[in-house]
Amino acid sequence: SPIDKAKFVAAKRSVDFVEDGMRVGLGTGSTAAWMVRCLGELVCEDGLKIRGVPTSTRTAELAREVGIEVISLDEARWIDVTIDGADEFDGNLNLIKGGGGALLQEKIVATASDQMVVITDAGKEVEKLGAFPLPVEVIPFGWQTTKSLIEELLISMDVLGRDASLRMNGSRPFVTDEGNYILDLHLGRIGDAHQMAMVLNQMPGVVENGLFIDICDVVVVGFGDGRVETRD
Ligand code: DER
């Protein structure tokens, strides 16, 4: 499909940021999966020497499958470049991430990197963040109280919508790699993303949120016709 083509060409271009000897943060999601496959080819066919730091168990599995040496963030200590997807990005390269439920490890790995490169199809570019539901990772203990407190807090915030919903996996709550739950906030439009990110993480029970503010350095945008544009 045109969207798959767009994701593939963005992923293919993004591996230009990877050099021999690098520690590479490996993102999560369908676009990042293309990037992992492209890197695997370079490792197996061109002898590219890299160590991959995955942002989810499923990315770790795929990386091993395609022949990439996987190490933990603790072993890597620091990362040269992280390549990951996003659900939305705006003109300041601020992001909403977490559609795939890996936002906690993704944000930790991205923050521990010299450079963060985001790869997306063109449909992810927005004027204002918030049309995509904002994922918030919460510990399971007291999650309904946390949800109510967040909805109450949102009343005083510059947003269009204030509903939060527990992300489900079939008939049970979705559980993250760390064993936490995710609340998706249906905000419609976030007036001040920096403030929203700060305020949410002050809430007891909240582990992390999907707003990536001042973290992304470059966005590589793929189009259905095979074109690629870079935003930095
Ligand atoms: O969960 C995530 O943050 C993923 O990177 C997601 O936002 C992008 O997934 P996609 O590449 O499958 O659209």
UniProtKB/TrEMBL annotation:
What CDD domains does the record point to?
A: RPI_A (cd01398)
Protein name stated in the entry: Ribose-5-phosphate isomerase A
**Record has Isomerase as a keyword:** yes
UniProt-listed Gene3D superfamilies: 3.30.70.260, 3.40.50.1360
Question: What does the sequence similarity comment in the record state about its family?
Answer: Belongs to the ribose 5-phosphate isomerase family.
A GO molecular function annotation here is:
ribose-5-phosphate isomerase activity
The UniProt subunit note reads as follows: Homodimer.
Role noted for this protein:
Catalyzes the reversible conversion of ribose-5-phosphate to ribulose 5-phosphate.
Q: Which organism is it from?
A: Roseovarius phycicola
The protein's annotated catalytic reaction(s) are: aldehydo-D-ribose 5-phosphate = D-ribulose 5-phosphate
Give the pathway.
Carbohydrate degradation; pentose phosphate pathway; D-ribose 5-phosphate from D-ribulose 5-phosphate (non-oxidative stage): step 1/1
UniProt keyword Metal-binding, yes or no: no
Its Enzyme Commission number(s) read 5.3.1.6
* Residue numbers annotated as active site: 106 (proton acceptor)
Residue positions annotated to bind substrate are 28-31, 84-87, 97-100, 124
Q: Write out the entry's keywords from A to Z.
A: Isomerase
